[in-house]
Amino acid sequence: MASSAASTSKEVATDLAERARDTVSEMRERKDGMIDYDTFKQVQVKVGTIISVEKIEKSDKLLKLMVNVGEDEPRQIVSGIAPYFKDIHSLQGRQAMFVTNLEPRKIFGLESNGMIFAVNDEDSFSILEPDTTITPGTQAS
Fold first, then answer.
1. Is 138 within the bounds of a domain?
2. CA dihedral sign of residues 54, 60, 87, 138
3. How far apart are CA 95 and CA 129, in angstroms?
4. Residue 45 near residue 99, CB atoms below 8 Å
5. Do both 61 and 95 map to the same domain?
6. Longest CA span, the chain
7. How many CB atoms lie within 10 A of CB 72?
8. Which of 23, 31, 49, 139 could bridge across to 68 with cysteines, CB 3.0–4.6 Å?
9. pLDDT value for 33
């Protein structure tokens, strides 16, 4: 009887393992671009105030932004938004929404520690920004 119980337990464990593998495979194969709510909750979107802006040498698109996102030190964020601004310094002092928990990434030799939220279509471009001044570091909800 112990042998039968062990055999049944092994079958149940095997079945559970196969179903788990199938679930993981289905998640990997999902082609509709949807994510579940728990994954979405992991993204940290915070208000940031752009402190300074510099053009990155040898790049037509990239700007180095120093951003106050409510931490002890400003964050360096590299963004390809230069073509949308005649005067890049007009960004200084503006607030925008930033993803703050992306892994750091080297871009043109500079470490970028976040991403600015922006949208564009064929005719226009816009940074996503609060419509009133908000304390830097405030989490979007």
1. no
2. negative
3. 6
4. yes
5. yes
6. 81
7. 4
8. 49
9. 77
Which residues face 78 on adjacent strands? 64
Q: Is 8 helix (H, G, I), strand (E, B) or coil?
A: helix
Give the structural domain span for 48: 41-127
DSSP code at position 140: P
Residues 23 and 58 both lie in one domain: no
The CA distance from 114 to 73, in Å, is 14
* Number of domains forming the structure of the chain: 2
Q: Is 133 within the bounds of a domain?
A: no
pLDDT tens digits for 107-139? Answer: 999 999 999 999 999 889 999 999 999 999 999
Where helices occur in the chain by DSSP H, the ranges are 2-29, 37-41
Considering the domain boundaries, does residue 132 fall inside one?
no
Residues 16 and 68 occupy one common structural domain: no
Interatomic CA distance for residues 108 and 44, integer angstroms = 25
Express as a percent the part of the chain with pLDDT over 90.
68
Is 139 inside any structural domain? no
Tokens representing 127 are: 């940074």
Q: What is the pTM assigned to this prediction? A: 0.75
pLDDT digits over 51-61, tens only? 999 999 999 99
